[in-house]
């Protein structure tokens, strides 16, 4: 008997995996036959029905047949040129989410490398060069936004009855992980030597930027080839045959298809060659342009972006924006941004038509989008807040919202999840860097105290954005890697500053801080304080006030007496507000005593 068969564990696992793959392939074939018989729907038909398809790179009939017979992979990419995704980014992601729900491989890509070049498509002016700290900040924020979206897609999958299958797969990747080790020579050898200048120079993006804009750099000219190489990497490693892009990405998709075919044909090693049949060809499509009420494209450049980061566009404001959508837009938006079956959308629109002022369809749209972007709990909360704040006589007619409550904060004591993670970005004075790592964790709010910070560090529960391993070196620009924090000496954390001004920390999976270091003078002028800041504790401040009052009356109080009186004062003045609505507050102890008649004048 061979050694492989004698090793019962690994052989059994290997055979089991093969059996699962065989079963998955059989199930896919059965599904393909059901589609052919008309018993199940082809996902391409669903895309057409929901209006996702604008321009197609490939023959639609062939793509439809390919999606019926083969479990292809699809990807959508975003360059982190802003600190957040916006609603316009969500539209090309939706077909990829749909593909995941239907059992295809789904990939979302963050362009940590390509963001440094900047996509020139549709632009006359070159993008401003981004610093390492800006790139690192944006990558971190968008990485966790995408993780949050995928978490909520999983919840939507269960909500709408999609079954989990063994071969369902999704990936979140950063193209800097392969570009950092890729040489220019390799790119030129496999791709550059075969690309003709004529077709690239004839592209509208190149013509317009050269003739009407500020010219085009070599890097911008090469951008479509970089994007094409990204696609090739995922095509060869993950089986990604389809790219989904925004409405202006058709040219880049076509260039990517040509790049894959070129690189594929240039392979000299027989065992690495990929078949060149129609079932192996790359394909792609773009989604329609998402515009605002004035017909302007969404985006930070236009200044009308509806951000998916709740610190930039609050969940309340996002809900209100969607509730304000006019009746002639809401049906299409439901098809774009929800997983509701089209027959259900049709019924909802019929109900909406019976009493349009209720805005039933708009509220459903707002709830579904918030459930996808921020989670079902936040969606439910914002729906209730809107109905309470704007309804008349209950939850009947809901006028268009215009307010904006305070930012959402995760509830104390609850596990941090993608949907309730506290705000990431913050400022701290540069003097914090001279403290121990445990005190820094306390200052950032990642630890409730310095002693808890020590426990977290001892258990390797906190991380700093840096090169992996024990090299104590700063983060590679464009990457998002973590290394465990240790009980280092004070000032050691300075090693990990990005551009000398930004520090990125994490506790657990989702609790992240992006800290901008400012001068101590600027910090003092801001009037802010941080946990553990010397001389800023509430008790210490109360003691100082009581000491001044006592001295004004000619009294001298001991430290023990001052401490006791300060504790009593703080307990009496403590008040509680409703989470997410600071306008609603409960009375403090002194106020309650007055109302109950328990606070009587001295000597009576």
UniProtKB/TrEMBL annotation:
<protein>
    <recommendedName>
        <fullName>Tyrosine--tRNA ligase</fullName>
        <ecNumber>6.1.1.1</ecNumber>
    </recommendedName>
</protein>
<dbReference type="Pfam" id="PF16714">
    <property type="entry name" value="TyrRSs_C"/>
</dbReference>
<dbReference type="Pfam" id="PF00579">
    <property type="entry name" value="tRNA-synt_1b"/>
</dbReference>
<keyword id="KW-0067">ATP-binding</keyword>
<dbReference type="InterPro" id="IPR032005">
    <property type="entry name" value="TyrRSs_C"/>
</dbReference>
<dbReference type="GO" id="GO:0003723">
    <property type="term" value="F:RNA binding"/>
</dbReference>
<dbReference type="InterPro" id="IPR002307">
    <property type="entry name" value="Tyr-tRNA-ligase"/>
</dbReference>
<keyword id="KW-0547">Nucleotide-binding</keyword>
<dbReference type="GO" id="GO:0005759">
    <property type="term" value="C:mitochondrial matrix"/>
</dbReference>
<dbReference type="GO" id="GO:0005524">
    <property type="term" value="F:ATP binding"/>
</dbReference>
<keyword id="KW-0436">Ligase</keyword>
<comment type="similarity">
    <text>Belongs to the class-I aminoacyl-tRNA synthetase family.</text>
</comment>
<keyword id="KW-0030">Aminoacyl-tRNA synthetase</keyword>
<dbReference type="InterPro" id="IPR024088">
    <property type="entry name" value="Tyr-tRNA-ligase_bac-type"/>
</dbReference>
<keyword id="KW-0648">Protein biosynthesis</keyword>
<dbReference type="InterPro" id="IPR014729">
    <property type="entry name" value="Rossmann-like_a/b/a_fold"/>
</dbReference>
<dbReference type="GO" id="GO:0004831">
    <property type="term" value="F:tyrosine-tRNA ligase activity"/>
</dbReference>
<keyword id="KW-0507">mRNA processing</keyword>
<dbReference type="InterPro" id="IPR001412">
    <property type="entry name" value="aa-tRNA-synth_I_CS"/>
</dbReference>
<dbReference type="InterPro" id="IPR036986">
    <property type="entry name" value="S4_RNA-bd_sf"/>
</dbReference>
<dbReference type="GO" id="GO:0006397">
    <property type="term" value="P:mRNA processing"/>
</dbReference>
<dbReference type="GO" id="GO:0005829">
    <property type="term" value="C:cytosol"/>
</dbReference>
<feature type="domain" description="Tyrosyl-tRNA synthetase C-terminal">
    <location>
        <begin position="417"/>
        <end position="534"/>
    </location>
</feature>
<dbReference type="GO" id="GO:0006437">
    <property type="term" value="P:tyrosyl-tRNA aminoacylation"/>
</dbReference>
<dbReference type="InterPro" id="IPR002305">
    <property type="entry name" value="aa-tRNA-synth_Ic"/>
</dbReference>
